[in-house]
Each structure stands twice: as structure tokens, then as C-alpha cells.
Write a structure and sequence with these properties.
The complex is a heterodimer of chains A (142) and B (410).
Chain A (H helix, E strand, L loop, with lengths): L1 E5 L9 H9 L6 H5 L9 E5 L2 E5 L8 H5 L5 E4 L2 E4 L9 H5 L6 E2 L5 E2 L13 H5 L5 E5 L1
Antiparallel strand pairs in A: 1-8, 2-3, 4-5, 6-7
Chain B lengths: L1 E5 L3 H13 L4 E6 L11 H6 L14 H4 L2 E5 L3 E5 L4 E4 L4 E3 L2 E4 L3 E4 L12 E3 L3 H10 L5 E5 L3 H10 L5 E6 L11 H14 L2 E4 L3 E5 L2 E4 L4 E3 L2 E4 L2 E4 L2 H5 L8 E2 L11 E3 L4 E4 L6 E2 L4 H15 L12 E6 L2 E7 L4 E6 L3 E8 L2 E9 L6 H8 L9 H6 L8 H9 L3
Parallel strand pairs in B: 1-2, 1-7, 2-3, 7-19, 9-16, 10-11, 10-16, 11-12, 18-20
Antiparallel strand pairs in B: 4-5, 5-6, 8-17, 13-14, 14-15, 20-21, 22-23, 23-26, 24-25, 25-26
Helix pairs in contact in B: 1-8
The chains are: A alpha+beta (142), B alpha/beta (410).
Chain lengths: 142, 410
């Protein structure tokens, strides 16, 4: 299955992936309208220190600890894609307790959110990857 | 092949899902005492709080049993396990053969003796959906609710009902709240938060006697109430296993493949006692992730694709009125403390390994990075510990490790 992988040496710390993610999951078709003067809640986050930077998002683990720890049964797996049903989520933080990568976080509404590879929004393909100017994140089979 | 599972909750689901990864044809039967299909048990407090409903709190989709080819008997109780003939006796007089059996009978409320308890009319426990619905049916805006137990169950119940009643008072024998998962500083912070929201506490105290609608406490205080909730704790439900002659301690003893002392019987979840990673001892870890993973491990073993569950630790994520808490591991060794106005963090380090953590408030973000250090027994000398103790981040790992984490299929 194709997933997002990180080429750390190419990351420019431009944070564009975060902007593209927030836009892609906003439900709005206009990027400016989606982002301007609004707090961003991206599902991909850039870690940065000195000259080192890289983006972190859900690894879509084959043994997803978030799914096994979810007290609501809100996290499910389908053909390798790990998705969260935000209607079922009660915001208990069990997935945050479990994820080894720190890849889940609360959404604006307080329930959890995670990268779903843009498979569950209107874009279909990861918009962060399309927006990365230096191929520091790629979407491929490994 | 006839797989039978006693119990219809999280462990049972873990078991069904892993059996079906390797055996798509064997018959699976689940016998559940409750009259409900599988539901997310820890959500009962959220149900009372209005943050979920019965439809949403189904732990798996409606078609789950059918999709996995599982026959379910709800509202049926197993009365006896006859290990010689590999036979179950059910409460309706019928019997059922098994080739492989999983005992996932969960836990039952532990209720210490209290004088005149039986005479309290409006008395509840808070462990099942039925418990929650029975409690809900009695709640009135004028109700004064007394909860015995300031642990996870008692305080989630308090959160669930506070807005719907006149008052909630909590009594606990321990001198601080959540004493099983927090240190003193953590307990104090969470207690202050809960008191500000309106919950009253009588700690280091217990009920000496019930007298009509009053509880007389050991300290001499008197607490009036209309509804009583007993939430002192739970104990493993091992009656069937014990009666069948399986090896038990507090829980049913299991190995790392979740086998019991009988070669045809497995156990997992709240009723069991398996190996805990950090103590190297058997512990009863009555926690949801553990329940799922033990069920899953048992299922793999039952379907003859044995995998061992070797890194079980205590871990909890819980929140009250917006204040979130993550705890994991054991609280031993040296410790590091970080306190902010809105949060608190304490890390426990032993022999160059992280063995425990307490994260509260603004310190919970990305807490799984710590939990993973504990579960994976990562040698802290292989990473930048000063950096990661300040904030959980992948940046603290060696570049080579990180390229594995983010560059390889997980």
C-alpha cells in the first residue's frame, strides 16, 4: 500500500505540508478562505531544531496501537488505511497515549484527528505531498 | 474446529479478529451474559454526559459478527466448564462442546462491607450499560449523589452525572484521589480541578454506617444523599475458572500466549493475570488496551499462529472536564518533574530506561512517544534524553532510528 514517507535531508522546514493539510481537511475549495486568519489544525506536523527538520504524520502501522487502545471503537483499519470516526470519538486521549509517533492530536472540536492520506476527504491523494516543494515527503509503496 | 468465547466485550473482539486472520472457516461462538451486542464499556460515563449515544457506542459495526462468521448468544450465562469433556453447561439447561475456549469474563464490582448497605434503596454500581441506564433512570435535578470510590470508575461517573444532579460527593478511604495511577502532586492538581467544578470530596474517610438517606462517616461527618454509587473498585471475575480447577491467583493465570493451565483454554482481559513487562511478575491489568491485546494474542494462539504478548504495562488515558491525564508504567527509580500552571509531568527512570510517566494537562500531547519508550525498553543512552524529557519528539532519536520510523513501512 502507498503511504507517506519522509526524506528528512530534503525538508526545508517551510511548513507548507501543514498548510496544505489544514486546507485539504477544511472542506473548503478555496485555500485562502480555508486558512486566512484561522488557527491551523494540521494532521501533519513539522519537527524542527537547528538545521534538522522533518514532517510527522500517521504511519498507518500494520499493528496499530491506536486502534487497539481506542475505548470507543472509533479507529478502524481498511485495506491498510487507519481512519478515525470522529462521531464515535469521545476525546479520551487513549490513542495519544498509544501512538509511538505522536501522530494523533485533538481537532478543533476536541475529538481526535489523524492523517487519513486524504482518502477520506474530497482530494483523494495526499495534498501535503503534492504541495511539498522539495520531495521531503513522498507518497509511494515501500 | 469449534472456538467458544465466554464474554462479549473487548477481549472477545480482539480474539475474533485475530482468529479470523488465520482461520476463516472454524466455528466461533460467543456467549455473553449481557443482553446487548458488543459495546464500548468505558463509554458509559460519556453516555450519561450526553457525549455519545447507544448507537455510537457500539464498539464494532452492526455487521461485525456476521462479517466474521460468529454466532452470538446474548443474555446467556455459562454455569459450569467441564474440562474433562470440553463442555459448557449453560443457564438454560443446554450444553455446548468446545475445542478451544477463551474465558473473557471481565471483572465484577468489589464492594467492601458497609453497615446497613443492603437497606439503601437507591444503590448502584457503575460497570455496565445496564448499570448506567438504571442510574440514569433515577437521576433528578434535585438528586444528591454519593459516590464511594475516588478512582477511575467513581470519578468518571461523577463527571458523567454532575451537570444532571444537584450535588456529587465522593468518599474514599485513600487520602487522595486516583491514588492507583497518580502521585501526590498529580492527585492534588486533579482534585483542585474537580473541586472547582463542583465535586465534593471526603478523603481518608469511609462509611461507617448507612442510616436512611444519610451516610455516617468514620470521621464523624454525616453526608445526606438520595442516590448511592458503589465504585470502590473491581475484581477479576474468576468464579467459572476457579470452579473448573484452572490455576488462579487474583486473576486467571496465563502465559504470554494467554494460555491458562489447561491446554484447551485461554483467558484474557480483566479476569486474567498475565506477565507485566516492568515488574517481571504476573499482574492483573484491568485496562482496555490490555484487554484487546490479550484477546488478540489468545486468538492467534487458538488459531495456531502463536504470537507472544510480551510488553504489557499499565497505561491509562483519562480526562475530567477538559483536564486530560496519561499515565504509564511503574513509579520507581529516579524521577524528573516538570510543572507548569496548566500541566504537570513526571518521568521515572531506572537503569537507563524510562519505566513510568505521569502527564497532566498541557503535558499530554504526543504522550505515546514516552509510552513507547517504556514498552520497547529503549536504552535512554541511545537518544537525546535531555531533549525528549523536555518534550516528547522524534527529533530526540538518532537520525538512523528516525529514518526507520518515518522512512520504512511500519
Amino acid at each position: 500500500m502507498k503511504k507517506i514517507y519522509v526524506n528528512e535531508q530534503w525538508c526545508l522546514a517551510c511548513h507548507l505540508c501543514e498548510y496544505y493539510c489544514a486546507y485539504a481537511n477544511s472542506g473548503l475549495s478555496d485555500m485562502v478562505q480555508a486558512l486566512k486568519d484561522k488557527p491551523l489544525h494540521p494532521r501533519i506536523q513539522v519537527e524542527q531544531r537547528g538545521t534538522v527538520s522533518f514532517a510527522v504524520n500517521c504511519r498507518h502501522c500494520s499493528e496499530p496501537l491506536c486502534l487497539k487502545s481506542c475505548i470507543a471503537g472509533a479507529i478502524t483499519e481498511k485495506d491498510g488505511l487507519i481512519v478515525i470516526d470522529q462521531d464515535k470519538c469521545v476525546g479520551c486521549y487513549s490513542c495519544i497515549m498509544a501512538c509511538p509517533y505522536g501522530a494523533l492530536m485533538p481537532s478543533e472540536s476536541g475529538v481526535m484527528q489523524k492523517c487519513e492520506l486524504c482518502a477520506t476527504n474530497s482530494h483523494g491523494l495526499p495534498v501535503c505531498v503534492q504541495g511539498c516543494p522539495n520531495q521531503a515527503i513522498v507518497y509511494e509503496e515501500r | 474446529m469449534q472456538y467458544v468465547i465466554i464474554g462479549n466485550s473487548i477481549t472477545s473482539v480482539g480474539c475474533i479478529e485475530s482468529i479470523r486472520k488465520h482461520d476463516t472457516t472454524g466455528a466461533i461462538t460467543v456467549i455473553g451474559e449481557e443482553n446487548h451486542p458488543i459495546y464500548a464499556r468505558p463509554l458509559i460515563s460519556y453516555l450519561l454526559q450526553g457525549k455519545t449515544d447507544e448507537q455510537k457506542m457500539t464498539y464494532r459495526d452492526e455487521g461485525f459478527y456476521q462479517k466474521h462468521g460468529v454466532q452470538v448468544l446474548t443474555g446467556r450465562r455459562v454455569e459450569k466448564i467441564e474440562v474433562e469433556g470440553q463442555l459448557l453447561r449453560l443457564d438454560d439447561g443446554s450444553s455446548m462442546q468446545y475445542d478451544k475456549l477463551l474465558i473473557a469474563t471481565g471483572s465484577i464490582p468489589f464492594i467492601p462491607p458497609m453497615k446497613n448497605l443492603e437497606e439503601v434503596e437507591h444503590r448502584h454500581t457503575f460497570l455496565s450499560l445496564s448499570d448506567a441506564k438504571e442510574l440514569e433512570a433515577e437521576l433528578q435535578p434535585s438528586s444528591r449523589v454519593l459516590i464511594i470510590g475516588a478512582g477511575l470508575i467513581g470519578l468518571k461517573c461523577a463527571e458523567g452525572i454532575l451537570e444532571r444532579v444537584q450535588s456529587v460527593t465522593v468518599v474514599d478511604l485513600a487520602d487522595r484521589i486516583l491514588s492507583s495511577i497518580l502521585d501526590e502532586e498529580g492527585s492534588a492538581r486533579v482534585q483542585t480541578h474537580l473541586e472547582q467544578i463542583g465535586i465534593r470530596f471526603h478523603l481518608g474517610d469511609s462509611v461507617r454506617e448507612f442510616c436512611g438517606q444519610e451516610a455516617l462517616l468514620t470521621s464523624g461527618k454525616v453526608v445526606g444523599f438520595d442516590i448511592l454509587v458503589l465504585a470502590v473498585g473491581v475484581k477479576p471475575n474468576i468464579a467459572l475458572a476457579k470452579d473448573a480447577g484452572l490455576a488462579v491467583n487474583k486473576g486467571i493465570l496465563i502465559d504470554q500466549a494467554c494460555r491458562t493451565s489447561n491446554p484447551h483454554i485461554w483467558a484474557g482481559g480483566d479476569c486474567s493475570e498475565g506477565w507485566e513487562l516492568l515488574s517481571g511478575e504476573r499482574r492483573n491489568l484491568a485496562l482496555l488496551p490490555n484487554a484487546y491485546m490479550q484477546g488478540e494474542t489468545a486468538g492467534y494462539s487458538m488459531a495456531e499462529n502463536e504470537q507472544r504478548f510480551e510488553n504489557a504495562i499499565a497505561m491509562n488515558a483519562i480526562g475530567f472536564f477538559g483536564l486530560h491525564i496519561i499515565t504509564a508504567g511503574i513509579y520507581q527509580g529516579e524521577d524528573l518533574c516538570f510543572a507548569t500552571e496548566k500541566g504537570y509531568k513526571r518521568l521515572f527512570i531506572k537503569d537507563d530506561h524510562l519505566v513510568g510517566c505521569i502527564l497532566i494537562g498541557d503535558q499530554v500531547a504526543r504522550g505515546g512517544i514516552y509510552t513507547n519508550l517504556i514498552r520497547s525498553r529503549t536504552d535512554l543512552r541511545t537518544l537525546d534524553f535531555a531533549m525528549i524529557s523536555e518534550q516528547p519528539a522524534l527529533m530526540a532519536f538518532a537520525q538512523k532510528v528516525r529514518s526507520e520510523q518515518l522512512g520504512r513501512a511500519q
